[in-house]
Amino acid sequence: MFVLINGAFGVGKSAVARELRALLPGSVIYDPEPVGVALQRLVRPRPSDFQDLPSWRRLTVAAARGIATLRTPVIIPMTFSNVDYLMEIQRGLAKSDRPILHFCLTAPLDVVRERLRHRGEHAEDPRWSWVHRRAAECCVAHQSASFGTHVPTESRPSSAVAADLAARVGQARS
User: Fold this and answer.
1) In whole angstroms, how far apart are CA 81 and each of 70, 78, 120, 135, 144?
2) What secondary structure, in 3-state letters, does the chain show?
């Protein structure tokens, strides 16, 4: 099984993924972002978003499917706002004949921005302007049903959100 955890930058994907891993024996987290960052540094001209690289999307699918042969469920926390890229990843994962659950963590933009500030990514700092711009874009894009089952995170600790997802994964397994 693959558990995609989508959501805006700062919404809590990584924290929820760690909590969920602890609740699902045998599960593993696969974060495709480091591969994307590495690829982005290798390509000239450098794209502003590594998700624009077809090689990243292919590697993400190949790695997740490979990991799923060893451990499952594979929890994949990743921000997708381009529905075409998301669908490409989902189609690739589906070829493994394993179930795919796709959750989109949501929160109002002001909550997301506060979480980003709390982790040291201030909007006033030019180093983080891209993250804040993308968080705003994602909060709008993720209102669409194309981005999976919406799971509100406002006023909920990551442990409660993870427990919610674990229950849904349990239902899908049975």
Assistant:
1) 29, 10, 23, 10, 10
2) CEEEEEECCCCCHHHHHHHHHHHCCCCEECCCHHHHHHHHHHCCCCCCCHHHCHHHHHHHHHHHHHHHCCCCCEEEECCCCCHHHHHHHHHHHHCCCCCEEEEEEECCHHHHHHHHHHCCCCCCCHHHHHHHHHHHHHHHHCCCHHHCEEEECCCCCHHHHHHHHHHHHHHHHC
Query: What domains are defined for the chain?
Result: 2-173 (3.40.50.300)
Q: Alpha-carbon distance 142 to 144, whole Å?
A: 5
* pLDDT of 103: 98
Residue among 11, 154, 17 nearest 77 (CA): 17
> Which residue numbers in the chain have pLDDT < 70?
none
Please tell me the predicted confidence (pLDDT) of residue 141: 94
